[in-house]
Amino acid sequence: MSLIVVCSSSGSPGVTTSALGLALTWPRPVLLVEADPTGGSALLAGYFRGQVTPAASLVDLAFAHRTGALAEAIPALAMTVPGTEVSILPGTLAHGQARSLEALWAPLAATLKALDAMGQDVLVDAGRLGLTGSPEPVIEEADLCLLTVRTDLVSLAGARSWAQTLRTRFDAQGAGDSLGLLTVGQGRPYSPREVATVLGVPVLASLAWDEAAAAVFARGAPRPRRFETSPLLRSLRATGDAARARAGNVANALAPDHEPTPTNPERTAVEHATIGRASHERNGVTQRGARA
Ligand SMILES: Nc1ncnc2c1ncn2[C@@H]1O[C@H](COP(=O)(O)OP(=O)(O)OP(=O)(O)O)[C@@H](O)[C@H]1O
Ligand SMILES: [Mg+2]
């Protein structure tokens, strides 16, 4: 079970579309957290076309954290997408609320990691990096951070310095494998190999350029014919497979004595939380989770 963050550096390459598409094609229970500090909830306005009024948003989680009730609040406040195993924590309504979340991110990261040990993967839409209120502590704690880019020159130029910054941060934590690129529109015009060479980060997966299918997730557009077997859906499933495999490997590698990531649902949350904490303290040195 994993904490996977999707983010971007510039432009709007498709973070929200990809994160939601991944969630809706995820083969097991998943929580999608809309942590983009831009506000305005692209999920509610886009996929849900403004027709769903959630009971709560991340701001309510910040309140819950202040009263010491963060862990209980997450399942209570998340909304379930009918007919799926996907639950969603919608983001803020306005960018001005992002500051109120700053104290939430570190404890939320720790709580989300404990959640994943309880049998739920977590996907986070972290939006564009560097914004005020960016969920950096969540990004740092991710088993996998997918920097999302298109493959044209402008997109690559905008991603280059952030790719370097992220690589330096993850390498410093001994978690270089936690960083990968997600390309949107493979070969438009550059190939994954070329993108990886320019950005100095490996491409974990590539999503097909598929406007009709993307519009379903981005704007709640009607499903095109053969949606389920569309190029985007097929590439989302392949991306999900690659992301789960990489995140699982990272979690195992960071665990003491390479103890496999626990997957037995009968193990208690407390056991899992203990294992998770232990993985943060190797040789007496806190490697990850320092903020938690
Ligand atoms: N695989 C794809 N193929 C074609 N179009 C896509 C694809 N993914 C996303 N798009 C389109 O790109 C546009 C931007 O997508 P999206 O809103 O998901 O980007 P974003 O990175 O979340 O942007 P922002 O940083 O503004 O939140 C949308 O019009 C969406 O339909
Ligand atoms: Mg977005």
Question: In CATH, what is the homologous superfamily?
Answer: P-loop containing nucleotide triphosphate hydrolases
Helix percent band: 40-55%
Envelope shape = globular
Q: Give the termini distance in whole angstroms.
A: 19 Å
What is the CATH topology classification name? Rossmann fold
Count of all domains: 1
The DSSP helix count reads 11
CATH C-level class is Alpha Beta
Rg is 18 Å
Q: How big a fraction of the residues is strand? A: 15-25%
Poorly predicted sequence stretches spanning 5 or more consecutive residues: 260-287
CATH architecture grouping: 3-Layer(aba) Sandwich
Strand tally, please? Answer: 10
Average pLDDT confidence is 87
Bound molecules: adenosine-5'-triphosphate, magnesium ion
Model description:
42% of the residues lie in helices and 16% in strands. The chain is an alpha/beta fold. It has one domain (3-284): P-loop containing nucleotide triphosphate hydrolases (Rossmann fold, 3-Layer(aba) Sandwich). Helix 1 crosses helix 9 (211-219) and helix 5 (102-117) crosses helix 11 (269-278). The longest helix is centred in the last third of the chain and has 24 residues, at 231-254. The two termini are 19 Å apart. Magnesium ion binds at residues 15-16, 36, 42, 127.
Keywords, separated by commas or semicolons:
binds adenosine-5'-triphosphate, single chain, alpha/beta, 42% helix, Rossmann fold, 292 residues, 8-stranded mixed sheet
